[in-house]
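Q: I'm building a small set of examples for a reading group on sequence design. Run inverse folding on the following structure and report the sequence directly after it, with nothing in between.
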């Protein structure tokens, strides 16, 4: 799903599991829509276990800490899994190409 939060001028794209928890999240702020986050909960957990959490967070960000159903102030639009994958690949490619 995706939603726009006008208070922060950010588009959020979420992949969620059956319980509404975010498994992957993309953040695209401002009119340029340059990604500032493309985080995976599974990757975040792996980085945490490996002691590389700071490195992961600074590069890819984090996923939402609450299930999407508990968040207020959003009006989500549904995306297909294919649409989400296109956004995901583009965001990850842009973030990965930036110098650390």
């Amino acid at each position: 799903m995706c939603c726009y939060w006008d208070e922060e001028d950010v588009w959020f794209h979420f992949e969620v599991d059956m319980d509404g928890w975010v498994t992957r999240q993309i953040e695209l702020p401002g009119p340029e829509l340059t990604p500032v986050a493309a985080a995976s909960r599974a990757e975040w957990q792996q980085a945490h276990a490996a002691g590389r959490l700071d490195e992961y967070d600074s590069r890819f960000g984090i996923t939402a800490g609450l299930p999407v159903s508990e968040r207020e102030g959003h009006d989500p639009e549904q995306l297909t899994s294919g649409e989400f994958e296109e956004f995901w690949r583009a965001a990850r490619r842009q973030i990965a190409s930036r110098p650390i």
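Residues 2-96 form one domain.
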